[in-house]
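#lab-general

N.A. 3:47 PM
ok so I finally got the sequence cleaned up, no stray characters, all 197 residues accounted for. can someone with queue access submit it? mine expired

B.Y. 3:52 PM
send it over

N.A. 3:53 PM
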Amino acid sequence: MAYTMTPWGYDVDGELPPLITVDEFDAMTGGKWAGDERVPPAIDAASAAIRAHCRWHVHPSMSCRATLDTDGASSLWLPTTILTDVTTVTVSGTDIGDAFQWSRIGQVLPDSRPTARLQGAVVEYTAGIDALPADLAEAVKNIVGRAGALSYGVASESAGGVSISYAANAAYAAASSAVESQAATLAPYRVVRSHAA
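B.Y. 4:20 PM
back already:
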C-alpha cells in the first residue's frame, strides 16, 4: 500500500480525491458554471474545508492506518464516524490478532488494556462512505456556488489592459467561511473524539 498522511493524523492508501467531480457539480447546477475555470479549485477548496470541519476524509471509503498514543485506557478512538472494517490492531509492537471489538463510530476495544505509550497502537482499517450522500453533495455544491459568487481575492488590478490577479488561497478562504452555513448538515459526519481516551 502507498499510504499518504492526512492533516488529521492518519494515513490513507493513495490520494484523496475531491468530494465531487466537476461533471457531478455541472449536473447538479444544470451547467450554470460549465467551463468556469474557478470551479475545479473551488471544488478542491470546498472538499478540503468540509473535511477540515469534519476532522477526517468522509468520502470515499478508503484503507487507512492510524498510529495512536495509548494512555492506559481501554478504548482506542479512530478519526472517523463511519468505520466499516478493522484489519489489524498492533499494540506495543504486537499484532493482537482478533482480540478486539470495534464499533461503526470509530471505537476499538482491545481485550487487554494497552499500557501507556506514545505511538503505542497501530490500527489498519477501512473508513468512509463509498457513495457520497445527497446532503454532502449538496453541501459541496452550495459552498462552491457561494464561493463563486464572492470576490475571488483580488490581489492586484490594473486598468488600461484590464489585468487582475487573484490570491492563491482565496478559494479556500471563501469555502472555509461558507462551511459554517452548512454546519447542521455536516454535524453527523463530524468526529468529536479521535484519540485514545
